[in-house]
């Protein structure tokens, strides 16, 4: 690897990171810069959720023919094929060719046989944009049959020149989150009496209540889900909290707490669900416990039962019990089915609806 080539390429990548806006656009510019030193005929970039190693978006128009895209996504979502993103992420190298990953036998890859060879793009190399063991994006490169395969030197060059890209992607995601927050209405306050009648409501509270997707108690003019939360707060000490969905598909977080004083009142704060809470909605939708949520994340990232036991400091038998319960709740029979279900149930609808991704790597709603 030429030190001059590395210096020039690194400078170009750093310039792309400084001047590009948006995580996907940034990766597209990095790809164009890298292409000058490591040629490729087709390519795509992905943004990646660090918690699950599943894609959250990307750019595919310069990639493989669209008629193969669904098949490509299905193979990728199962996480079992050679050079799957979780497998590459857990290795020592950030960039690797399919040939290197298969020990010179790319024909053992389903993707190679079913997609790469039929499309005339049999050579593939993947490059992860990662930092501190977290992957934020990836570049997938392809070469045609009449071109030479990607070499180890090219993989080393691509990896060495792009070390700063992950932080730049994360920065752009944070900026996206900040910009989105400016468009989200602020929290509202609703005050109720002991009979759950409305004492007062701020304009923001009235705005949110009007959007709640639930039937209305006509006497109190409040959604039943709000009244149920209020009853919980009246019946026990401390605050009660719930998340509810609007007709437009947004999520709201409600905090209810009894106020003691001369006149008993109940306060309910209503606000748009913060991005940091959104990931928990996946666990809630499948009724997963906190420990089961950890197991799901590790399974999705390719950890074995023995490795999960070591990370969680529990026995392998305990891990087996957790996995059995997780599979039962998600109605799957294998790790591959689990990761595919997470991707198609939780990621694909948000990607199709162009939901932006925030600083945690997860969708903003």
Description:
This protein has 365 residues and is of the alpha+beta class. The protein has 3 domains: 3-179, Beta-Lactamase, CATH 3.30.450; 188-273, Beta-Lactamase, CATH 3.30.450.20; 286-352, Winged helix-like DNA-binding domain superfamily/Winged helix DNA-binding domain (Arc Repressor Mutant, subunit A), CATH 1.10.10. It has helices spanning 3-19, 23-35, 69-78, 85-89, 98-101, 110-116, 152-161, 165-181, 203-211, 224-235, 275-286, 290-300, 305-312, 316-330, 335-352; strands spanning 42-49, 54-59, 95-97, 123-131, 134-143, 188-192, 198-201, 216-217, 222-223, 240-245, 251-259, 265-272. The strands form 3 sheets. A 5-stranded antiparallel beta sheet has the order 2-1-5-4-3. The radius of gyration is 24 Å and the shape is elongated.
Summarize the structure.
The protein contains 15 helices and twelve strands. It has 365 residues and is of the alpha+beta class.
């Amino acid at each position: 690897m030429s030190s001059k080539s590395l210096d020039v390429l690194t400078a170009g990548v750093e310039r792309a990171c400084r001047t590009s806006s948006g995580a996907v656009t940034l990766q597209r510019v990095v790809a164009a810069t890298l292409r000058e030193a490591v040629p490729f005929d087709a390519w795509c970039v992905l943004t990646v959720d660090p918690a699950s190693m599943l894609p959250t978006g990307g750019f595919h128009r310069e990639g493989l023919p669209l008629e193969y895209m669904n098949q490509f996504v299905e193979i990728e979502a199962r996480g079992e094929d050679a050079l799957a993103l979780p497998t590459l992420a857990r290795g020592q190298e950030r960039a690797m060719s399919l040939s290197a990953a298969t020990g010179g036998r790319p024909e053992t890859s389903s993707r190679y046989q079913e997609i790469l060879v039929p499309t005339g793009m049999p050579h593939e190399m993947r490059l992860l944009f990662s930092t501190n063991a977290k992957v934020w994006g990836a570049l997938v490169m392809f070469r045609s049959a009449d071109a030479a395969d990607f070499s180890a030197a090219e993989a080393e060059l691509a990896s060495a020149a792009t070390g700063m890209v992950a932080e730049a992607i994360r920065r752009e995601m944070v900026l996206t989150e900040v910009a989105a927050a400016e468009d989200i209405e602020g929290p509202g306050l609703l005050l109720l009496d002991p009979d759950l009648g409305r004492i007062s409501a701020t304009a923001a509270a009235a705005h949110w209540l009007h959007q709640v997707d639930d039937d209305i108690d006509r006497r109190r003019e409040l959604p039943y889900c709000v009244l149920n939360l209020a009853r919980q707060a009246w019946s026990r000490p401390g605050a009660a909290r719930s998340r509810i969905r609007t007709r437009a598909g947004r999520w709201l977080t409600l905090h209810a707490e009894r106020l003691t004083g001369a006149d008993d009142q109940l306060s309910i704060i209503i606000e748009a669900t913060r991005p940091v809470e959104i990931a928990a909605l996946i666990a809630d939708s499948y009724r997963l416990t906190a420990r089961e949520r950890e197991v799901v994340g590790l399974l999705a990232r390719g950890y074995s039962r023995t490795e999960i036991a070591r990370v969680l400091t529990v026995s392998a038998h305990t891990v087996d019990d957790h996995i059995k319960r997780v599979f039962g709740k998600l109605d799957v029979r294998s790790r591959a089915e689990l990761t595919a279900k997470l991707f198609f149930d939780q990621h694909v609808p948000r990607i199709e609806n162009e939901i932006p991704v925030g600083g945690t790597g997860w969708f903003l709603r």
